[in-house]
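Quick one, tokens below. Sequence please?
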């Protein structure tokens, strides 16, 4: 089943999705990777994302994705911080266009440079409007991309940016507070953006989600997919905690 269809079926059934982001830099230890993937495989995690703002270790990205694919029973999407983070061993890719910034490299340049390689990879491509929201501190993604996040109090700009992305044909919108963010994306921003989207659009929210309560707030505000990354490194118990909450939420939606 195509991943976009898989996601849409969840949305039509009013089921919320939990995604775990694996940054290869955090999982150089094979035992840690296996432990984390075991938790993912035995929980209600819906999707695994692989990528990072910048790769600082000597880990071979392609081999890392291959290993995850072999050990994981969930759909795997690339979440690339750059053109070097593309591998045919994933199921698909969130093809991110940083629409909140004005740096052409991350709006279109990286996409042009990797278009042929992506075509040859046969990866399922999910065009995604990537929107940085101010989280109270400088994050790696804003530093690497040399762009400023949208201020948390400028809800109109965040909404208009998401709307423009969908008008350009992007079916996925990703609100990002950033890796290691002090705060998660504010509920008011999530809700306002959600109100500009149609049922065929998917709203992803990530960054700064370090507690179950923050995940719940994102869901209640309108997120279809909540993405957790840093908070599960060396903390597989948090995966199980979130899994229990999402299972209960989705069970309640049946009644």
């Amino acid at each position: 089943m195509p991943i976009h269809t898989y996601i849409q079926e969840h949305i039509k059934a009013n089921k919320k999705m939990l995604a775990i982001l694996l940054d290869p830099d955090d999982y150089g230890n094979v035992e840690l990777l296996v432990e984390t993937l075991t938790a993912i495989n035995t929980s209600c995690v819906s999707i695994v994302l692989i990528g990072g703002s910048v790769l600082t270790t000597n880990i071979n990205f392609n081999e890392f994705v291959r290993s995850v694919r072999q050990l994981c029973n969930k759909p795997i999407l690339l979440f690339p911080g750059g053109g070097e983070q593309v591998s045919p061993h994933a199921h698909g890719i969130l093809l991110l266009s940083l629409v909140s910034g004005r740096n052409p490299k991350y709006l279109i340049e990286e996409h042009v440079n990797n278009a042929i390689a992506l075509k040859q990879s046969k990866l399922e491509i999910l065009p995604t409007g990537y929107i940085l929201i101010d989280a109270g501190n400088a994050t790696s993604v804003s530093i690497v991309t040399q762009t400023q996040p949208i201020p948390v109090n400028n809800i109109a700009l965040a909404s208009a940016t998401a709307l423009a992305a969908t008008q350009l044909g992007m079916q996925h919108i990703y609100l990002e507070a950033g890796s290691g963010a002090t705060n998660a994306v504010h509920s008011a921003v999530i809700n306002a953006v959600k109100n500009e989207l149609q049922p065929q659009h998917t709203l992803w929210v990530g960054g700064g989600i370090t507690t179950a309560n923050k995940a719940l707030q994102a869901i209640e505000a309108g997120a279809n997919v909540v993405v957790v990354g840093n908070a599960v490194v060396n903390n597989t118990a948090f995966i199980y905690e979130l899994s229990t909450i999402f299972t209960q939420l989705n069970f309640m939606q049946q009644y």
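The beta strands are 17-22, 47-50, 76-78, 92-98, 124-132, 172-176, 202-206, 225-228. Residues 129 and 165 are 6 Å apart (CA to CA).
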